[in-house]
Design goal:
Length: 152
């Protein structure tokens, strides 16, 4: 008896495309499910050092929600590398200007912090509204975990 081991040949050709509707979904719970699909952990062939994940398109990012006090208290911070260059923006302001960045940042924060994680993050496409230019890939609708669907 031999154990199946993926060779890495033809991975890009066998990737599937999924579309996820973020309307009414909690940002964190949505991000965990999307990160699982991007990394391939929902795939029985998953291997820690290979990118076996699929492409994910998130639509209606503008309609995602934050639970609790996160909408008022959560801040995004980055530094410009200049003296006194710490910049802060609240999640409410960032969500009003660029809702797709909020979802992207939540998902990428759940992926590995290395070359493999960057490759996984490139397979994520987030759009603020329902329209997306990936209809040629014929994406399947991804049904999220029942707990996430019950949040609606």
């Amino acid at each position: 008896m031999s154990t199946y081991f993926p060779s890495g040949v033809g991975l890009a050709e066998n990737r599937k495309w999924y579309v996820v509707d973020a309307a009414g979904q909690t940002v964190g719970r949505l991000a965990t499910e999307v990160a699982r699909v991007l990394s391939g952990k929902n795939n029985p062939r998953w291997t820690p050092f290979m990118d076996l994940g699929d492409h994910v398109i998130v639509i209606n990012a503008r309609k995602a929600v934050f639970k609790g006090s996160k909408a008022e208290q959560k801040m995004y911070r980055h530094h410009t590398l200049y003296p006194g260059g710490l910049r802060e923006i609240s999640v409410r302001d960032q969500f009003a200007k660029h809702p797709e960045r909020v979802i992207e940042q939540a998902v990428r924060g759940m992926l590995p912090k290395n070359k493999l994680g960057k490759a996984m993050g490139k397979k994520l496409k987030v759009y603020a509204d329902e329209a997306h230019p990936h209809s040629a890939q014929r994406p399947a609708t991804l049904v999220l975990d029942e707990r996430v669907a019950a949040q609606k």
